[in-house]
Amino acid sequence: MPCDRMLIAYDGSENAKRAISYAGRFLSAEKAVVLTAWEPMVRQAARLSGLSGVMQPEWVPEDEIEDIAYQDARAVNAEGLHLAQLAGLNAEARTAESSTTIWNAIVECADELDVDIIVAGTRGSTGLRALLRSSVADAVLRHCHRPVLLVPPGR
Length: 155
Known about the structure:
This protein is of the alpha/beta class. It is 45% helix and 21% strand.
């Protein structure tokens, strides 16, 4: 039985492209939502300066200037939408601003849209590397209460 709606998390990586390909090959849905979650530059700068121990300067972006991170997210999302359509999916584009973490933005969007399945690519990290770098896909799997298709990287 086909699902009504799937959410495909897309960040432009080769693993995300692979996930779209697998979704097109193995899943059917009336609608596929290609989601690119993004973090505003102000928050990225604050997080990075906090990690480095450097005092963050008072930086308030001008309202008239669109956030470069949002511009990048829209471009990445357009690419994902195109790939989903090439994979035979009836897809629509969506971006989500992350207020906390990228994985949380994905889970919140899945809940808002009430999707039947989430599709995401993984980096395939294991061991110490996996401990040092948290995986968005793994966090989605742990915190989401919906089926998740995780597509590992190719060989």
